[in-house]
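Please fill in the sequence for the structure shown.

STRUCTURE ENCODING:
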């Protein structure tokens, strides 16, 4: 009977964990505190005692841009191996222990940072933190696990070689950033991933995960004192390191069209030019402008003109990209080979029209209403709040940004949008890569 009660309790807690992970909890006010751990590590936290779950997010600055020459994909491979055995646990034992604790860990690598995410029950918080700390400090890099993860990466890379969208994205980055880490795919190439050794993994692990480059958020049923001890436990086995500065990258990819032949029935295009930095005072007006032009789904201008009015493509999108060392304004479209040329012609025309005219009053009001009204969905769970707190630290937005965000958006005027559109958009400067068998280009 006692065993059944314990099992029922565990299942109930797992249900609560699912509730927080998948964002069905109601939105609530977020009170963020900056805390310093006993060992001196600064982190942000939100106390949420209602549900016995603690969400953790850590971003270590550096990421794939630290991959050595000839070893592209190394950061992605390191992070993919952190839960494939650590300390005394091989891959199976690690997974078994994590499941016994009802904990969830995930690890990922991007261009400018590697990420660690965890959701842990208060009931098993101590051993869950110990297990995660072991994964961060003492991954095993067992040969069998290394080859398994290597095989997964190589399989994905090989599959992407037949995906025109993936090929176009890689080619666009290489065209924009020749000789720079941003021009190399995060997942690497067949040759670079095949060349990665166990020594490469161990060395890069120590370089990627350092206390000096950690941005941390803790959210859940935990107080600041316990959260400080949790953070110190997690980072205790890592090197101190030193703050990293991103290598500067050019922000003016060459204009014009590059066509890469691929025997597929549809062509994919990636297009874009220099963007706007997150710290720029015009970023919020640019954010609203982009929503109108290409970020609003079915109601954006690109979707209206390319899909709804002309039926040229299933979708056309645009988005602002802010790397630590570069800012871009990118877009993409995919359609039949016979329709890609006209699709790009329409996109160029809309690019130029927005640059010349800006948005309408109705479009701006709709953008404001959506971007403020939908925001609570970004912070409707402990895990989402932790993720957003780390994002705020990465972008140096300030601990009060959530309080200021709505006001910043509401303050944008039509003249602001016209100004930033004229400043940012240049249809003639678009750098375009098309992959497929396009007709008319």
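FILLED IN BY: designer on duty
SEQUENCE:
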């Amino acid at each position: 009977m006692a065993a059944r009660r314990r099992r029922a309790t565990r299942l109930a807690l797992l249900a609560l964990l699912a509730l927080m992970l998948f964002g069905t909890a109601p939105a609530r006010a977020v009170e963020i505190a900056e805390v310093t751990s006993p060992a001196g590590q600064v982190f942000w936290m939100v106390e949420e005692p209602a549900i016995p779950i603690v969400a953790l997010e850590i971003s270590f600055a550096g990421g794939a841009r630290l991959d050595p020459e000839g070893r592209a994909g190394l950061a992605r491979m390191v992070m993919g191996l952190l839960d494939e055995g650590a300390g005394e646990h091989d891959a199976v034992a690690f997974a078994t222990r994590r499941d016994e604790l009802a904990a969830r860990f995930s690890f990922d690598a991007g261009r400018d940072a590697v990420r660690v995410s965890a959701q842990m029950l208060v009931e098993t918080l101590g051993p869950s933190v110990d297990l995660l700390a072991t994964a961060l400090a003492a991954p095993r890099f067992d040969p069998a696990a290394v080859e398994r993860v290597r095989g997964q990466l190589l399989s994905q890379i090989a599959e992407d070689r037949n995906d025109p969208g993936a090929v176009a994205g890689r080619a666009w980055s290489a065209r924009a950033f020749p000789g720079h880490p941003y021009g190399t795919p995060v997942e690497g190439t067949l040759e670079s991933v095949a060349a990665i050794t166990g020594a490469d993994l161990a060395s890069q692990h120590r370089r990627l995960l350092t206390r000096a480059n950690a941005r941390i958020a803790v959210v859940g049923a935990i107080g600041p004192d316990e959260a400080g001890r949790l953070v110190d436990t997690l980072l205790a086995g890592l090197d101190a390191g030193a703050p990293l500065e991103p290598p500067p990258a050019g922000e003016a990819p060459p204009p014009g069209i590059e066509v890469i032949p691929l025997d597929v029935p549809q062509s994919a295009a990636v297009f874009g030019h220099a963007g706007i930095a997150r710290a720029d005072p015009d970023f919020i007006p640019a954010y609203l402008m982009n929503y109108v032009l290409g970020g609003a789904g079915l109601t954006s201008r690109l979707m209206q003109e390319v899909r709804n009015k002309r039926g040229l493509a299933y979708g056309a999108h645009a988005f602002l990209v802010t790397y630590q060392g570069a800012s871009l304004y990118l877009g993409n479209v995919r359609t039949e080979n016979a329709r890609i040329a006209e699709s790009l012609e329409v996109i160029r025309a809309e690019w130029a029209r927005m640059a010349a005219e800006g948005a309408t009053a109705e479009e701006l009001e709709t953008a404001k209403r959506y971007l403020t009204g939908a925001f609570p969905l970004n912070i409707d769970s402990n895990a989402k709040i932790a993720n957003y707190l780390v994002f705020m630290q990465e972008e140096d937005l300030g601990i009060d940004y959530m309080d200021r965000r709505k006001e910043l958006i509401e303050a944008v005027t039509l003249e602001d949008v016209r100004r930033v559109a004229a400043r940012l958009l240049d249809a003639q400067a678009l750098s375009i890569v098309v992959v497929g068998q396009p007709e008319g280009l």
